[in-house]
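Q: What does the predicted 3D structure of 3-hydroxybutyrate dehydrogenase look like?
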Amino acid sequence: MLKGKVAIVTGSTSGIGLGIAKELAKLGANLVLNGFGEAGEIEAIRSGIERDHGVRVVYDGADMSKGNAVRELIDRTVEKFGRLDILVNNAGIQFTAPVEEFPAAKWDAILAINLSAAFHGIAAAVPQMKKQRWGRIVNIASAHGLVASTHKAAYVAAKHGLVGLTKVVGLETAGSGVTCNAVCPGWVRTPLVEKQISDIAAQKGISQKEATSELLAEKQPSLDFASPEQLGGTVAFLCSAAADQITGTAISVDGGWTAR
Ligand code: NAD
Protein backbone atom coordinates (compact mmCIF):
# COMPACT_ATOMS: atom_id res chain seq x y z
CA MET A 1 0.00 0.00 0.00
CA LEU A 2 2.84 2.44 0.81
CA LYS A 3 5.50 1.02 -1.52
CA GLY A 4 7.94 3.74 -2.63
CA LYS A 5 6.60 6.27 -0.12
CA VAL A 6 8.89 7.95 2.41
CA ALA A 7 7.91 8.37 6.06
CA ILE A 8 9.52 10.22 8.96
CA VAL A 9 8.47 9.03 12.41
CA THR A 10 9.91 11.24 15.14
CA GLY A 11 10.75 9.52 18.42
CA SER A 12 10.74 6.09 16.81
CA THR A 13 13.59 4.45 18.74
CA SER A 14 11.09 3.32 21.41
CA GLY A 15 7.45 2.71 22.28
CA ILE A 16 4.62 3.98 20.09
CA GLY A 17 6.88 5.56 17.47
CA LEU A 18 8.69 2.28 16.93
CA GLY A 19 5.36 0.46 16.60
CA ILE A 20 4.24 2.99 13.98
CA ALA A 21 7.55 2.79 12.09
CA LYS A 22 7.34 -1.01 11.90
CA GLU A 23 3.75 -0.92 10.65
CA LEU A 24 4.58 1.62 7.91
CA ALA A 25 7.63 -0.46 6.88
CA LYS A 26 5.43 -3.56 6.75
CA LEU A 27 3.28 -1.72 4.19
CA GLY A 28 6.36 -0.90 2.09
CA ALA A 29 7.31 2.64 3.16
CA ASN A 30 10.94 3.70 3.35
CA LEU A 31 11.66 5.20 6.75
CA VAL A 32 13.54 7.83 8.64
CA LEU A 33 13.87 6.71 12.25
CA ASN A 34 14.51 9.39 14.85
CA GLY A 35 14.99 9.53 18.61
CA PHE A 36 17.56 9.00 21.32
CA GLY A 37 19.16 5.82 22.60
CA GLU A 38 22.26 3.69 22.60
CA ALA A 39 23.94 3.65 19.14
CA GLY A 40 24.20 -0.15 18.96
CA GLU A 41 20.55 -0.66 19.89
CA ILE A 42 19.39 1.93 17.36
CA GLU A 43 21.46 0.28 14.62
CA ALA A 44 19.94 -3.11 15.53
CA ILE A 45 16.44 -1.61 15.22
CA ARG A 46 17.31 0.11 11.92
CA SER A 47 18.88 -2.94 10.26
CA GLY A 48 16.18 -5.23 11.70
CA ILE A 49 13.37 -3.26 10.06
CA GLU A 50 15.29 -3.11 6.76
CA ARG A 51 15.85 -6.87 6.82
CA ASP A 52 12.32 -7.80 7.93
CA HIS A 53 10.48 -5.60 5.45
CA GLY A 54 12.88 -5.02 2.52
CA VAL A 55 12.61 -1.22 2.74
CA ARG A 56 15.28 1.47 3.10
CA VAL A 57 15.62 2.73 6.67
CA VAL A 58 17.91 5.56 7.76
CA TYR A 59 18.44 6.91 11.25
CA ASP A 60 18.57 10.65 11.94
CA GLY A 61 19.25 11.77 15.51
CA ALA A 62 17.80 15.31 15.18
CA ASP A 63 16.86 16.81 18.56
CA MET A 64 13.13 17.62 18.50
CA SER A 65 13.55 20.24 21.22
CA LYS A 66 15.26 22.51 18.67
CA GLY A 67 13.11 24.04 15.93
CA ASN A 68 15.96 24.39 13.43
CA ALA A 69 16.97 20.76 13.94
CA VAL A 70 13.40 19.66 13.15
CA ARG A 71 13.34 21.70 9.94
CA GLU A 72 16.76 20.33 8.95
CA LEU A 73 15.49 16.78 9.49
CA ILE A 74 12.75 17.43 6.92
CA ASP A 75 15.18 19.05 4.45
CA ARG A 76 17.76 16.25 4.81
CA THR A 77 15.06 13.63 4.20
CA VAL A 78 13.90 15.31 1.00
CA GLU A 79 17.54 15.63 -0.15
CA LYS A 80 18.25 11.96 0.60
CA PHE A 81 15.06 10.37 -0.76
CA GLY A 82 13.87 13.02 -3.20
CA ARG A 83 10.43 13.07 -1.56
CA LEU A 84 8.46 13.06 1.72
CA ASP A 85 5.03 11.49 1.94
CA ILE A 86 4.27 10.83 5.60
CA LEU A 87 5.26 12.81 8.68
CA VAL A 88 4.37 11.33 12.05
CA ASN A 89 5.02 13.81 14.86
CA ASN A 90 5.36 11.38 17.74
CA ALA A 91 8.37 12.33 19.90
CA GLY A 92 7.21 13.29 23.36
CA ILE A 93 8.20 13.51 27.00
CA GLN A 94 6.29 13.69 30.28
CA PHE A 95 6.82 15.29 33.68
CA THR A 96 4.31 15.49 36.53
CA ALA A 97 4.01 18.06 39.34
CA PRO A 98 1.34 20.42 40.70
CA VAL A 99 1.24 23.61 38.65
CA GLU A 100 2.71 25.79 41.40
CA GLU A 101 5.73 23.48 41.67
CA PHE A 102 6.10 22.76 37.95
CA PRO A 103 9.72 23.58 36.97
CA ALA A 104 9.80 26.22 34.22
CA ALA A 105 12.53 24.30 32.38
CA LYS A 106 10.29 21.20 32.23
CA TRP A 107 7.40 23.31 30.92
CA ASP A 108 9.67 24.71 28.18
CA ALA A 109 11.02 21.27 27.23
CA ILE A 110 7.56 19.65 27.05
CA LEU A 111 6.13 22.50 24.97
CA ALA A 112 9.16 22.38 22.65
CA ILE A 113 9.19 18.61 22.05
CA ASN A 114 5.47 17.77 22.31
CA LEU A 115 4.10 20.82 20.45
CA SER A 116 6.59 23.18 18.77
CA ALA A 117 8.47 20.33 17.04
CA ALA A 118 5.25 19.43 15.21
CA PHE A 119 4.81 23.06 14.11
CA HIS A 120 8.36 23.23 12.71
CA GLY A 121 8.13 19.81 11.05
CA ILE A 122 4.75 20.58 9.46
CA ALA A 123 5.87 24.03 8.27
CA ALA A 124 8.89 22.50 6.54
CA ALA A 125 7.04 19.45 5.15
CA VAL A 126 3.84 20.99 3.76
CA PRO A 127 5.41 22.69 0.67
CA GLN A 128 6.98 19.37 -0.42
CA MET A 129 3.77 17.42 0.21
CA LYS A 130 1.68 20.01 -1.67
CA LYS A 131 4.11 19.80 -4.59
CA GLN A 132 3.60 16.02 -4.65
CA ARG A 133 -0.18 16.51 -4.27
CA TRP A 134 -0.18 13.81 -1.63
CA GLY A 135 0.85 13.84 2.00
CA ARG A 136 -0.14 12.47 5.38
CA ILE A 137 0.62 14.31 8.60
CA VAL A 138 -0.24 12.43 11.77
CA ASN A 139 0.25 14.08 15.14
CA ILE A 140 0.42 11.70 18.08
CA ALA A 141 -1.51 13.67 20.69
CA SER A 142 -3.14 11.91 23.65
CA ALA A 143 -6.37 11.49 25.59
CA HIS A 144 -4.74 14.45 27.34
CA GLY A 145 -5.24 16.40 24.11
CA LEU A 146 -8.99 16.18 24.78
CA VAL A 147 -9.38 16.06 28.56
CA ALA A 148 -7.18 16.96 31.53
CA SER A 149 -5.66 15.26 34.55
CA THR A 150 -3.98 16.80 37.57
CA HIS A 151 -0.22 17.42 37.71
CA LYS A 152 0.22 17.44 33.93
CA ALA A 153 -0.05 21.17 33.14
CA ALA A 154 2.60 21.22 30.43
CA TYR A 155 1.66 17.90 28.84
CA VAL A 156 -2.08 18.66 28.73
CA ALA A 157 -1.43 22.17 27.39
CA ALA A 158 0.94 20.84 24.71
CA LYS A 159 -1.40 18.01 23.64
CA HIS A 160 -4.47 20.29 23.50
CA GLY A 161 -2.31 22.65 21.43
CA LEU A 162 -1.35 19.80 19.13
CA VAL A 163 -5.02 18.95 18.51
CA GLY A 164 -5.63 22.65 17.71
CA LEU A 165 -2.64 22.76 15.35
CA THR A 166 -4.03 19.64 13.64
CA LYS A 167 -7.33 21.42 12.91
CA VAL A 168 -5.62 24.49 11.45
CA VAL A 169 -3.32 22.45 9.19
CA GLY A 170 -6.27 20.25 8.16
CA LEU A 171 -8.10 23.40 7.02
CA GLU A 172 -5.08 24.96 5.32
CA THR A 173 -4.25 21.81 3.33
CA ALA A 174 -7.84 20.77 2.54
CA GLY A 175 -8.24 19.83 -1.12
CA SER A 176 -4.48 19.71 -1.75
CA GLY A 177 -4.07 15.94 -1.37
CA VAL A 178 -2.50 16.47 2.03
CA THR A 179 -4.33 15.50 5.23
CA CYS A 180 -3.47 16.26 8.84
CA ASN A 181 -4.96 14.34 11.74
CA ALA A 182 -4.27 13.66 15.40
CA VAL A 183 -4.30 10.28 17.10
CA CYS A 184 -5.15 10.34 20.80
CA PRO A 185 -3.94 7.25 22.65
CA GLY A 186 -4.99 6.36 26.17
CA TRP A 187 -2.52 4.32 28.24
CA VAL A 188 0.05 2.42 26.19
CA ARG A 189 2.65 0.44 28.14
CA THR A 190 5.89 2.16 27.08
CA PRO A 191 8.86 3.52 29.09
CA LEU A 192 6.95 6.84 29.39
CA VAL A 193 4.12 5.12 31.29
CA GLU A 194 6.33 2.59 33.07
CA LYS A 195 7.83 5.49 35.02
CA GLN A 196 4.35 6.69 36.08
CA ILE A 197 3.48 3.16 37.28
CA SER A 198 6.69 3.06 39.33
CA ASP A 199 5.87 6.48 40.83
CA ILE A 200 2.38 5.27 41.93
CA ALA A 201 3.90 2.09 43.40
CA ALA A 202 6.49 4.11 45.34
CA GLN A 203 4.02 6.78 46.56
CA LYS A 204 1.43 4.26 47.74
CA GLY A 205 3.79 1.50 48.86
CA ILE A 206 2.11 -1.05 46.55
CA SER A 207 3.46 -3.53 43.97
CA GLN A 208 4.01 -2.70 40.27
CA LYS A 209 1.09 -5.01 39.45
CA GLU A 210 -1.28 -3.25 41.86
CA ALA A 211 -0.10 0.15 40.61
CA THR A 212 -0.75 -0.95 37.02
CA SER A 213 -4.33 -1.97 37.92
CA GLU A 214 -4.89 1.37 39.68
CA LEU A 215 -3.54 3.36 36.73
CA LEU A 216 -5.87 1.57 34.30
CA ALA A 217 -8.91 1.59 36.59
CA GLU A 218 -8.67 5.35 37.14
CA LYS A 219 -8.86 6.27 33.43
CA GLN A 220 -9.23 3.44 30.94
CA PRO A 221 -12.62 1.64 31.09
CA SER A 222 -11.36 -1.30 29.00
CA LEU A 223 -8.88 -1.97 31.85
CA ASP A 224 -6.28 -2.84 29.23
CA PHE A 225 -3.46 -1.00 27.49
CA ALA A 226 -3.55 0.00 23.83
CA SER A 227 -0.45 -1.34 22.04
CA PRO A 228 2.17 0.32 19.83
CA GLU A 229 1.06 -2.10 17.07
CA GLN A 230 -2.55 -0.88 17.35
CA LEU A 231 -1.36 2.72 17.10
CA GLY A 232 0.66 1.68 14.05
CA GLY A 233 -2.54 0.26 12.57
CA THR A 234 -4.39 3.54 13.20
CA VAL A 235 -1.67 5.55 11.46
CA ALA A 236 -1.68 3.05 8.57
CA PHE A 237 -5.44 3.56 8.23
CA LEU A 238 -4.93 7.34 8.08
CA CYS A 239 -2.40 6.74 5.27
CA SER A 240 -4.85 4.58 3.31
CA ALA A 241 -7.21 5.69 0.54
CA ALA A 242 -10.16 5.03 2.92
CA ALA A 243 -8.97 8.08 4.89
CA ASP A 244 -8.60 10.48 1.95
CA GLN A 245 -11.47 12.63 3.30
CA ILE A 246 -10.48 12.43 6.95
CA THR A 247 -8.64 15.59 7.90
CA GLY A 248 -8.38 18.04 10.79
CA THR A 249 -9.76 15.55 13.26
CA ALA A 250 -8.67 13.55 16.28
CA ILE A 251 -9.07 9.77 16.54
CA SER A 252 -9.11 8.28 20.03
CA VAL A 253 -7.50 4.90 20.74
CA ASP A 254 -8.12 4.97 24.45
CA GLY A 255 -10.26 2.03 25.62
CA GLY A 256 -13.13 4.45 26.37
CA TRP A 257 -11.12 6.99 28.47
CA THR A 258 -12.62 10.10 26.83
CA ALA A 259 -16.14 8.67 26.44
CA ARG A 260 -16.98 9.51 30.06
P1 NAD B 1 8.71 6.61 24.80
O1 NAD B 1 9.41 7.29 25.93
O2 NAD B 1 8.71 5.12 24.71
O3 NAD B 1 9.25 7.16 23.41
C1 NAD B 1 9.52 8.53 23.20
C2 NAD B 1 10.40 8.66 21.99
O4 NAD B 1 10.67 10.06 21.79
C3 NAD B 1 11.76 7.96 22.14
O5 NAD B 1 12.15 7.43 20.89
C4 NAD B 1 12.68 9.11 22.53
O6 NAD B 1 14.05 8.88 22.21
C5 NAD B 1 12.09 10.23 21.69
N1 NAD B 1 12.46 11.55 22.13
C6 NAD B 1 12.34 12.12 23.35
N2 NAD B 1 12.86 13.35 23.35
C7 NAD B 1 13.33 13.57 22.09
C8 NAD B 1 13.98 14.67 21.46
N3 NAD B 1 14.27 15.80 22.13
N4 NAD B 1 14.32 14.54 20.16
C9 NAD B 1 14.07 13.40 19.47
N5 NAD B 1 13.44 12.34 20.02
C10 NAD B 1 13.09 12.44 21.31
O7 NAD B 1 7.23 7.19 24.86
P2 NAD B 1 5.87 6.73 24.14
O8 NAD B 1 4.93 6.35 25.22
O9 NAD B 1 6.11 5.80 23.02
O10 NAD B 1 5.38 8.15 23.58
C11 NAD B 1 5.31 8.48 22.21
C12 NAD B 1 4.27 9.56 22.02
O11 NAD B 1 2.99 9.06 22.38
C13 NAD B 1 4.50 10.81 22.88
O12 NAD B 1 4.19 11.97 22.14
C14 NAD B 1 3.52 10.62 24.02
O13 NAD B 1 3.13 11.83 24.59
C15 NAD B 1 2.38 9.94 23.29
N6 NAD B 1 1.45 9.22 24.15
C16 NAD B 1 1.87 8.17 24.90
C17 NAD B 1 0.95 7.50 25.70
C18 NAD B 1 1.30 6.31 26.53
O14 NAD B 1 0.45 5.84 27.30
N7 NAD B 1 2.51 5.76 26.42
C19 NAD B 1 -0.39 7.92 25.72
C20 NAD B 1 -0.76 9.01 24.96
C21 NAD B 1 0.17 9.65 24.17
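A (community wiki): The C-alpha coordinates above were generated from the sequence. Residues 11-17, 34-37, 63-65, 90-93, 113-114, 140, 142, 185, 187-188, 190-193 surround nicotinamide-adenine-dinucleotide (CB under 6 Å). The longest helix spans residues 104-132.
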